[in-house]
Amino acid sequence: MSNGTKSGLQALLTPEESVVVLIDHQPFQFANLNSHEPTMVVNNAVALAKSAKVFDVPTILTTVLEERGGYLIKGLQDVFPEQKPINRTLINTWQDERVVDAVKATGRKKLIIAGLWTEICVAMPAIQAAGEGFEVFAVTDASGGASKEAHDMGVQRMIQAGVVPITWMAVASEWQRDWAREETIPAMTEMLLEHGGATGVAFSWEMQLLAAGRAGSDV
Question: Which of 70, 131, 124 is nearest to 93 (CA)?
């Protein structure tokens, strides 16, 4: 079981304590993604990656048998163009020593995982890492399963093991925490405009109204 605190302020995420592992967002996995609209998972996974970059959170990219399953999707790779994903044969990412060593090298214990498929490639490493003392968070809307049932059962199984389900916008919000943290606001705003759905649309409208109000006051 994950030995992290599940309540109180210390249970929330901070950039300084977090490390992200993105698992197998590849064409083969997307081909049998049926729990979510695939374009939504792409949007959310890229948004999570961009959030990690905004807050300087170490992010590890992984693929499985990329020579058959395809390279990491372009949207994710473009966030970290210099990083070569760790390509595995093991289904369970946490059994690949390169991935575990990369996570441990950060010295961080709040492990944030998203990937395809939830019931296999997310659940297996999440459950194992939780048993090894990491506080594990599974980003459910940046992940997906072969069916809705498969995704849901994967999430339930992880919860039983002490893994915390969370969404990408909740992760970004916990990292931001305070709107007085002005150095990250421009990048956060840009990301929300691009990936935040109705939130981005509403923000654009608000900016339009504010601009129109300023223009009217100058007349």
Answer: 124
